[in-house]
């Protein structure tokens, strides 16, 4: 094969992966909104994504190790889809096989364009009166708050979309940081909070802003990257403790611990009690089950579990949560080691945010979902590559000028 033919083949392969990413994000363009696609449309996109996956696999050379791991993930994904008729876990595992490090910016760009177009369409429907802009009254730390939903079921869902768009912008512009971008970031954070009242959204965006400012310094950039690569497994241990351990202890705590956990539950808008109720009324299985809130609604009335890890554990089982942690932890570690501090921090932010919002397996918010295979490719499927020197955005600018 000549160099030109090899280049053409690689371009064709990349184009197929971009089509796969489109099939990944498009069914969730209007997720949680009044324009959400039907189950039939989502199923059609799932079929297209699986066909593209098989087409790509059939037209590219892979090692035996790669094919074995791909087959294992495909089988787990298909079993999950057959049991629960939910495509997102299957699509996540397929993307882990296909999407590599060089595809990360294209994936974020596709997500950004998809969300901008879908938001524009949603706002047109709102402006013309085709859909109503409902006001939702909800409680935060015992206080009643009212906000417009802007076509979504809850103001928090609208906040999630806006915050994810801001994070995508921060990542896509991270190599050319300017003072006006920091001003834009601050203004966006304040505006999102004023419109939606989302405390979680305000905190995660503020954390990313602080990291993006610190990352402009070369020494801090390298130090933070090294630190993240070393503590990633401890990080997920803490995440699992707060997301699964605390609801478990909430059921059994006595004395001062019980008082403390109930106070924390009030601050978290009853998220601990909601999650612990799931543990009381449902069983954990290896592959999960068709988990819904029917039983909880019968017992408690209006009910929602915002803890993503509880949803992941009960919907997709022990296998599901173990696979997610392994993929996410390795990806964060690889990104940090290779100097992509901003994306590694964004993925960590999504993992923390998922404790209080159901966004972990939500592609309409979590644009890092199809990127979980970066660590898999680097650690297990490819030979070691030459190390890449840490470089902050400011350092890269100076080097390009030279």
Any overview of this molecule?
69% of the residues lie in helices and 3% in strands. With 402 residues, the protein is mainly α. Strands 1-2 form a two-stranded antiparallel sheet.
Amount of beta strand: under 5%
Count all strands and give the number: 2
What is the residue-mean pLDDT, rounded to a whole number? 86
Output the radius of gyration: 22 Å
The poorly predicted ranges are 383-391
Number of DSSP helices? 16
Please identify the structural class as seen in this structure.
mainly alpha
| Count of the separate structural domains | 1
Strand line-up in the sheet with most strands: 1-2
In whole angstroms, how far apart are the ends?
Answer: 37 Å
Share of residues in helices: 55-70%
Order of helices and strands: HHHHHEEHHHHHHHHHHH
What form results from the Cα inertia axes?
globular
Taking the sheet with the most strands, its summary is: 2 strands, antiparallel
Nutshell version of this structure?
This protein is mainly α and 402 residues long. It is built from 16 helices and two strands.
Topology:
Elements: H1 3-25, H2 39-58, H3 64-84, H4 88-98, H5 104-128, E1 135-140, E2 143-148, H6 155-172, H7 179-196, H8 199-214, H9 218-252, H10 255-267, H11 271-281, H12 294-300, H13 308-337, H14 341-353, H15 373-381, H16 393-401
Antiparallel strand pairs: 1-2
Helix pairs in contact: 1-2, 1-4, 1-5, 2-4, 3-4, 4-15, 5-6, 6-7, 6-8, 7-8, 8-14, 9-11, 9-13, 9-14, 13-14, 13-15
């Amino acid at each position: 094969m000549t160099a030109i033919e090899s280049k053409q083949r690689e371009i064709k392969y990349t184009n197929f992966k971009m089509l796969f990413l489109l099939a990944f994000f498009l069914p969730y363009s209007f997720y949680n909104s009044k324009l959400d696609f039907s189950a039939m449309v989502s199923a059609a996109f799932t079929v297209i994504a699986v066909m593209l996956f098989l087409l790509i696999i059939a037209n590219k050379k892979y090692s035996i190790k790669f094919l074995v791991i791909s087959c294992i993930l495909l089988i787990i994904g298909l079993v999950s889809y057959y049991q629960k008729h939910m495509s997102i876990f299957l699509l996540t595992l397929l993307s882990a096989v296909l999407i590599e490090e060089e595809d990360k910016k294209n994936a974020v760009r596709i997500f950004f364009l998809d969300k901008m177009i879908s938001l524009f369409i949603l706002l047109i429907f709102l402006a013309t009166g085709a859909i109503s802009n409902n006001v939702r009254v909800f409680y935060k730390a015992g206080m009643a708050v009212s906000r417009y939903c802007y076509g979504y079921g809850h103001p928090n869902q609208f906040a999630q979309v806006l915050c994810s768009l801001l994070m995508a912008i921060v990542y896509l512009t991270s190599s050319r940081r300017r003072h006006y971008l920091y001003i834009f970031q601050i203004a966006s954070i304040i505006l999102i909070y004023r419109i939606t009242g989302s405390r979680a959204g305000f905190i995660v965006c503020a954390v990313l802003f602080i990291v993006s400012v610190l990352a402009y310094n070369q020494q801090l950039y390298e130090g933070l990257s090294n630190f993240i690569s070393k503590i990633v497994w401890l990080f997920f241990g803490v995440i699992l403790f707060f997301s699964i351990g605390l609801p478990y202890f909430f059921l059994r705590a006595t004395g001062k611990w019980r008082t403390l956990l109930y106070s924390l539950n009030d601050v978290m808008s009853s998220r601990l009690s909601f999650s612990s109720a799931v543990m009381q009324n449902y069983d954990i299985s290896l592959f999960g089950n068709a988990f819904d809130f029917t039983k909880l609604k019968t017992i408690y009335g209006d009910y929602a579990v915002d803890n993503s890890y509880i949803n992941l554990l009960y919907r997709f089982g022990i296998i599901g949560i173990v696979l997610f942690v392994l993929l996410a932890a390795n990806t964060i570690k690889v990104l940090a080691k290779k100097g992509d501090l901003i994306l590694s921090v964004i993925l960590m932010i999504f993992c923390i945010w998922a404790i209080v919002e159901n966004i972990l397996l939500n592609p309409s918010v979590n644009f890092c979902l199809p990127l979980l295979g970066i660590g898999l490719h680097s650690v297990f499927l490819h030979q070691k590559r030459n190390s890449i020197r840490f470089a902050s955005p400011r350092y890269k600018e100076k080097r390009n000028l030279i």
